[in-house]
Amino acid sequence: MLFKKVVIAGVGLIGGSLGLALCKRNIVPQVVGVDPDQDNLELAVQLGAVHQGATLAEALTGADLFIIATPIGVSLGVLEMALPYLQQGTIVTDVGSVKGRLVERAEAMLPAGIHFIGGHPMAGLEVAGVSGAREDLFEGACYLLTPTEKTEPAALIRLRGLIECLGATPMELDYREHDEAVAVISHLPHLLSAALVNTVSYDAKEQLLLTLAAGGFRDTTRIAASNPLMWRDILLTNRSMVLAAINKFRVQLDKIEQSIEQFDPDILVDALTRAQNLRSTLPENRKYRLRDK
């Protein structure tokens, strides 16, 4: 058995989905949820996402894995509150999409014998709360881990093993490389999706455009439906990497704009073909999406 007691702080979509997988697959005998929203916590128990709910102090007694699944803006605060209750040998991880500040602060504040390993499952939906949680959310997904030179190898092996039990594939990255990568493939797409929707919202013919909007617009803008406050914290926390990603995108958009402005079909087709070819190589790794179709 990899872990005997897992505590999940923040039983929302990701925390709840982790709990559902751990409980329903009998991976861990005791999963305890902590959440400031008592109604959400009670629902998590009803849905089987956690075996029981408790306060942070109560929950951490005897825990050998502590998962911080709160919004990224409060993750450090939750870790600081948990610090007096963590025991020797406990592994602490998170699920946030920005790692730099959290990894550095966590390693600085945790005493020897308590192991922090940054984590980020590359999975999600445009819903919030445990009501949208899914046991199979991580099936086939890449689950990023950001160990450092201070990480204990045995702790990393145990966490990797748990991730594999979820049906996900663990992958290790330097936390700085992680933040740079997700700025391009996760954070930038959200900004572009929001900008595209806002382009329509500021148009004088907004209602006509929305009436005519078909699958392409809906697919491209799907992630704009995500929680704005959550994304505010993500984008500002990863500010420098996001700004760099925006600049990279601007270069590509300028090239396409110039090809249209100069009526240069060769450059335009080259850009579209390059995108088509690369897009066709992306694997379909979301098993639950295939089942939903």
From TrEMBL:
SUPFAM superfamilies: 6-phosphogluconate dehydrogenase C-terminal domain-like (SSF48179), NAD(P)-binding Rossmann-fold domains (SSF51735). Pathway: Amino-acid biosynthesis; L-tyrosine biosynthesis; (4-hydroxyphenyl)pyruvate from prephenate (NAD(+) route): step 1/1. Its EC number is 1.3.1.12. InterPro entries: 6-PGluconate_DH-like_C_sf, NAD(P)-bd_dom_sf, PDH_C, PDH_N, Preph/Arog_dehydrog, Prephen_DH. GO terms for biological process: tyrosine biosynthetic process. Residues 4-290 form the Prephenate/arogenate dehydrogenase domain. PROSITE patterns: PDH_ADH. Gene3D superfamilies: 6-phosphogluconate dehydrogenase C-terminal like domain, NAD(P)-binding Rossmann-like Domain. GO terms for molecular function: NAD+ binding; prephenate dehydrogenase (NAD+) activity; prephenate dehydrogenase (NADP+) activity. It comes from the Bacteria. It catalyses: prephenate + NAD(+) = 3-(4-hydroxyphenyl)pyruvate + CO2 + NADH. Keywords: Amino-acid biosynthesis, Aromatic amino acid biosynthesis, NAD, Oxidoreductase, Tyrosine biosynthesis. Belongs to the prephenate/arogenate dehydrogenase family. This is Prephenate dehydrogenase. The lineage of its organism: Bacteria, Bacillati, Bacillota, Clostridia, Eubacteriales.
